[in-house]
Amino acid sequence: MARAARHAASTASPPSPGDIHEFSAGDSMAELRELTASAGAGIAGEFLQRRPRPDPATLIGSGKVEELRGAVASAVPDLVIFDHELTPSQQRNLERALDVRVIDRTQLILDIFARHARTREGQLQVELAQLQYLLPRLAGRGAEMSQLGGGIGTRGPGETQLETDRRKIFRRIRHVEQQLENVRRIRGQQRQRRESVPIATVALVGYTNAGKSTLFNALTRAGVLESPRMFATLDPTLRHIVLPSKREVLLSDTVGFIRNLPHTLVSAFRATLEEVQRASLLLHVADATSPTADEQQKQVEEVLRELESQDKPRLYVMNKVDLLAEKKRDSLRDSDDVVHVSAIREIGLDRLRQRIDEKIAQDPVQRARLRVPQAEGKALALLDAKAQVFARAYRDGYVDLDVQAAESVLRKLRNFVSEPSDDS
Q: What one-character DSSP code corresponds to residue 55?
């Protein structure tokens, strides 16, 4: 078994205009620890610094660099991680001063994505984001950049050797983009076939590690990977679920969002996130136990705005209520737009299905009375499978039924409709 690398993790979070909903320094450090663990590393030490503005040369200033150099000499880590985006020159200056590899939060997230990508599409998307990140950082880099796959911050999906030549990088980017365009075209064809049938798509969105995959499995029995690690799910999964009205919808599990999600990742994963853009309803899953739940939800809203999906119909799903104190749990109240659940304990899932059913406008449910000949076994089987039957009576070789079903089902049975129900 390979030994997990030891890392000295340093976070420096000076305010910037883009940080509209900023987490506290402690929250930021806790998230960095989780990201580091998801990358398969241990932590040798931590540094926290507050500055009014970043140092243009090293981000953290010469005094803190000296202090960090002493800690690095003592702990001998493999790498130092900064919880702040570093410019190419800052990264080079820090590596020269500390005599150890230095990466920033973006590169760490890219590495986690590379670690967890399973499908060819996911690997291509991660590779494109890595190449776009690498391009401005080529100047002044030596032999240490000639290998992708040599540890955290260098892990590349499928690339064993990649020379850091701009022309080759550009060529590779064009090639990956072309392959992703083919994926997007095939996905579009599949979506067109799906959309020819009146079935709505419901997309799960939320902060990473909010429990989306656990909820997806609880609703669909799909058996996708559930993990407490961040970004365990990268590859989109679609499954059918049946709602209380017996309508079917497609449920889509998507990649988790995170504070300051690298723009290159949003761009690279746009093909995957098209499921969010096309969805009839978004289930915004949040961790009800998180002390930063409000800030996390705001960060999800930021990414949805970037995807131009901020106006989609929304249902907020507060997950993990089983971990709350009993008194707190008993005080929770659902509303039209908020449902409290525990995906792992399957608490509140029936209410959630009912709320989804109420919010899906596509292929609306209607009440009707039908008169079906008993010999029409296929029509009767369709009603048993796809409709709610409130009353059934057998008379003179016919079956009189009072049913509620989706418009598409009643359209197939229009020859048997005797009259709309008084309760419609």
A: B
CATH number assigned to the domain covering 198-359: 3.40.50.300
Helix residue ranges per DSSP H, 290-340:
293-306, 326-330
Pairing status of strand 237-242 against strand 338-340: unpaired
d(CA 267, CA 393): 58
Q: Under CATH, which architecture does the 365-420 domain have?
A: 2-Layer Sandwich (3.30)
- Domain ranges in the chain with CATH number 3.30.70: 365-420
Residue with tokens 């990140």: 133
Bridge-partner residues for 391, per DSSP?
402
pLDDT, residue 398, reads: 94
CA distances 157 to 119, 129, 150, 256, 355, Å, are 10, 11, 12, 20, 40
Q: Is 170 helix (H, G, I), strand (E, B) or coil?
A: helix
Euclidean distance between the first and final Cα of the chain, in Å? Answer: 64
Q: Find the helix or strand (DSSP H, E) in which 391 lies.
A: strand 387-395
Element (DSSP H or E) covering residue 252: strand 248-253
How far apart CA 369 and CA 170 sit, in angstroms, is 64
Q: What is the pLDDT of residue 196?
A: 63
Res 224: pLDDT: 59
Question: Residues 2-26: pLDDT tens digits?
Answer: 333 444 444 443 333 333 345 678 8
Token output for 167: 């022309």
CATH 3.40.50.300 residue spans of the chain: 198-359
The residue ranges of the chain whose pLDDT is under 70 are 1-23, 138-164, 191, 194-198, 222-236, 263-264, 267-272, 419-424
Q: What is the assigned CATH class of domain 6-112?
A: alpha beta
* C-alpha–C-alpha distance, residues 373 and 353, integer Å: 33
Show Cβ contacts of residue 307 under 8 Å, excluding neighbours closer than 6 positions.
266, 270, 273, 276, 277
Query: Of 134, 113, 345, which Cα lies nearest the Cα of 229?
Result: 113
- HSE (CB half, 13 Å, CA atoms) of 107? 24
Tally: H helices and E strands in the chain: 14, 14
Predicted TM-score (pTM) of the model is 0.75
Cα separation, 27 vs 45, whole angstroms: 17
| Res 91: pLDDT | 92
Across the strands, what pairs with 359?
none
The SS3 assignment for 153 reads coil
Alpha-carbon 358 to chain mean position: 24
Joined together, the tokens standing for residue 197 give 């049938």
